[in-house]
Design a protein that fits this description.
This protein is of the alpha/beta class. The protein contains seven helices and four strands. The chain has one domain: Uracil-DNA glycosylase-like domain (Uracil-DNA Glycosylase, subunit E), CATH 3.40.470.
C-alpha cells in the first residue's frame, strides 16, 4: 500500500512555515514525480489522503474523476493494471468532516481489499492430480 498526500517536494521556508497552510501550487510543483513514485513502489493499492491528493493522483493517471465524496464512498478505482486507488479524508480533517466511526469504516474498506489481495497472493498451490502420485524418493522415468 502506498499512501500519499501528493506533495512530493519539500516546501521552502523555516520550520514554522513548513507547518503553514498548504498552497494549491504545491500539489502540482512536483506532479511529474507522483506517477513515477507510485509505480516505483509497485504497491497494488494507492491511498490518497485528502481531496487534493485524490485529484493529483487522478490527474497523474488521466483517470475519469468522480467527486471526492463518491470516491471515498465507492469501490476501489482502477489505476493501471492491478493497481487501484482509494480516497480517504485526510486524517487531520476528522474533527471537521468525518466522525471517528466513518474514518474507521473508510480504512476497514481498504483493509478488506488488502486482505483479499493477500488471499490471492498467498493462495495454496494447486493440488496434485488424483491417481498414484510419486513419492519424493521415487524416480519417475
Amino acid at each position: 500500500m502506498f499512501a500519499t498526500n501528493a506533495i512530493l517536494c519539500l516546501k521552502d521556508g523555516t520550520a514554522n512555515e513548513l507547518s503553514a497552510p498548504v498552497k494549491l501550487k504545491w500539489y502540482s510543483a512536483c506532479g511529474q514525480f507522483l506517477q513515477w513514485t507510485i509505480e516505483e513502489t509497485s504497491a497494488p493499492v494507492v491511498v490518497a489522503l485528502g481531496e487534493r491528493a485524490y485529484e493529483a493522483v487522478v490527474r497523474a493517471y488521466g483517470i475519469a474523476r468522480l467527486s471526492f465524496r463518491e470516491a471515498v464512498a465507492g469501490s476501489p478505482i482502477p489505476v493501471d493494471g492491478p493497481r487501484v486507488l482509494f480516497a480517504v479524508y485526510h486524517p487531520a480533517a476528522r474533527p471537521n468532516t468525518r466522525t471517528l466511526g466513518q474514518m474507521r469504516a473508510d480504512w476497514n474498506r481498504i483493509a478488506a481489499h488488502l486482505k483479499k489481495l493477500h488471499q490471492i497472493v498467498a493462495a495454496p498451490p494447486a493440488q496434485a492430480p488424483l491417481g498414484n502420485p510419486a513419492r519424493a524418493d521415487e524416480v519417475i522415468e
